[in-house]
Amino acid sequence: MMRSTAIFLFICGFLVGTVAAGEGRSIGNFDSEQGAFKLVVLIEGLDHPWGLTFLADGRMLVTERSGRLRLIDNGRLDPEPIQGLPAVSSYGQGGLLDVILHPDFERNRLVYLSYAAAGAGGFGTEVARGRLIEHRLEEVEVIFRALPKFNGGRHFGSRLVFDNDGLLFISLGDRGHRPNGQDLSTHPGSIIRVRDDGSVPADNPFVGKSGARPEVFTYGNRNVQGMTIQPGTGRIWAHEHGPQGGDEVNIVTAGTNYGWPSITYGRNYGIGTKIGEGTQKPGMAQPVLQWTPSIAPSGMTFYHGNRFPKWNGNLFVGSLKFEYIARLELDGERVVHQEKLIEGALGRIRDLRQGPDGFIYILSDEGDGVIARLEPVEP
Q: What does 125-139 look like in DSSP terms, one character per residue?
């Protein structure tokens, strides 16, 4: 049922595009090693947009970190936000973060949101779901709360991905408290795996382990703001922010310890001193790729469409710090080549998604943020 629905969504989205190719405000043409493309701004006036998802009828939902969920309909921003959201705390790096649809959305209308929320002890990442009925979320329920909550406004994560079995992955940050990374009794500093209702799969790696949170799927994660599923393999890939270097790309596998803060390629901010025990340690995974200096990665998508056939199988990552898109060529689980795209042309890149129409959509993290799109230049 879930795979059939995904195919239906792809076909409908391809046939009913939100904005036809060639429409919007063109920023200009750019050259890539694999051919020319243009950058087109489709929507302007968003308040620090964070996450984006596509409806089968061609509309889009986009989150604003300040706490609003916006609807893009027929190429225009609806002035009225979607109503019925849970209480969101726009605090520090937190706020309304990611948005995705249930794999069987056409039947159940379920939308999932990750966001920062206040509670006992401070603030933490939560995930809620609700049914999208016309212009409102109904029957909203919180299905996951990252515990314990902490004061401070750093490192909330958070991306949401459903795998091919319909299980929900939730990426978190360590909330700026380094020991969380190696502490299985806390959710922060990990990637979570739950069922679509928030219940725990029996085969999660730490189910039944004394002192461990059963929702934890991986740990040793600093602040994961990019996560996506790889077409064909079904693997979940993720990246996370390092401290003054040491941003990582990883493949998400059950029970893996990615090392933070025991090992890292990053350094302490400002003073540049070593963190932890070095860059390697037995029992702790090495990244597929690390960036030093840090690019401040956010957003992540594989390309698997017919608009850019030479990009098929490439992994795309946004850079907040250097304002570019990193195009990564892979050989199996190795990154063998990198290219920088649209450097400085759009501002801070917050999210990347491949649309059902085969274009690549981009969110810029600005007070006057935009939705833009990469389109091929016809020869």
A: EEEEEEEEETTEEEE
Supply the CATH number for residue 308's domain. Answer: 2.120.10.30
Q: Output the CA torsion sign for 363, 261, 266, 282.
A: negative
Catalytic residue among 48, 102, 155, 177: 155
Residue 155 among the catalytic residues: yes
Q: What is the pLDDT of residues 117-131, one digit of tens each?
A: 999 999 999 999 999
**246 near 222, Cβ under 8 Å?**
no
* Number of domains within the chain: 1
Neighbouring residues of 99: CB distance < 8 A, sequence distance ≥ 6? 51, 52, 53, 61, 62, 63, 69, 111, 112, 113, 160
Tokens of 259: 């090392």
- Do residues 47 and 64 touch, judged by C-beta distance below 8 A? yes
Distance, in Å, from the CA atom of 339 to the CA atom of 343, rounded to the nearest integer, reads 10
| Euclidean distance between CA atoms 305 and 291, whole angstroms | 27
Binned at pLDDT 50, 70 and 90, residue 1 comes out as: very low
How many C-beta neighbours within 10 Å does residue 199 have? 11
Of 17 and 351, the structure prediction assigns the larger pLDDT to 351
Query: pLDDT tens, 300-338?
Result: 999 999 999 999 999 999 999 999 999 999 999 999 999
Strand partners, 361: 353, 373
User: Residue 78 is part of which domain span?
Assistant: 2-376
